[in-house]
């Protein structure tokens, strides 16, 4: 297929682009970075610079595609003014999706966020109702990033109601790669009291890219939402034990797939997409949370 990847120069976009190329797709990449005009390696993605908050530019890059993987977004709410986060994420999603509907693109993969339930950046903090968190957990977003991702999923619902497009929204956990494991997850490996709203969850960028390829190739009808998180928690600890130790009885503990389970369940993706995560923080870090020596 001819697949457009938006946000292709970011952490997730780069991995998704390569995974789609490896799967045999013709990949067209777009981002805000300027192109270069050197000779391109054989088999690389075709690149076009585009600002997707501009409807004309969004329509230009979507035209002629068989699938769209929409990764482009401001990835969290603290580094930009709130109105910029909300406007950029929601309008770019609307424009790219609208173009896909008008050009009869049959498959759309929307990269949403684990933050949609709302307990990641709230002004009035609250905890998950239960863990592991799954797709059925109520959504009460407060911040502009979670709101933009929540409304983006509503746009997907509307698209499948008014057209024949098939949509999958992926909610990745905290995405890590070789450059970030030690900095981001090392402190939690060493000390479980270093808390995060996603309950010691994470996802390897290459496992996420595998899920994106499966979603792109999928024929699932309508709009399906999938959490994508590694099956184990950061540190590999007994999840029931640390949940009770640090949260008492405030979060209901539900059935676990394994003792060292993640705080986010990807059981639906395993069941319906056939997703099979292969990587763990243990591949990169030792028991002290330090980068393994090659």
From TrEMBL:
Quote the Gene3D superfamilies the UniProt record gives: NAD(P)-binding Rossmann-like Domain
Cite the NAD-dependent epimerase/dehydratase domain residue spans from the record: 3-218
Checking InterPro entries in the record gives:
Epimerase_deHydtase, Lipid_A_modif_metabolic_enz, NAD(P)-bd_dom_sf
Matching entries from Pfam families are given as: Epimerase
- Its name, as the record gives it, is NAD-dependent epimerase/dehydratase family protein
Q: Which SUPFAM superfamilies match?
A: NAD(P)-binding Rossmann-fold domains (SSF51735)
Q: Which residues form a coiled coil?
A: none
Species of origin reads Amnibacterium endophyticum
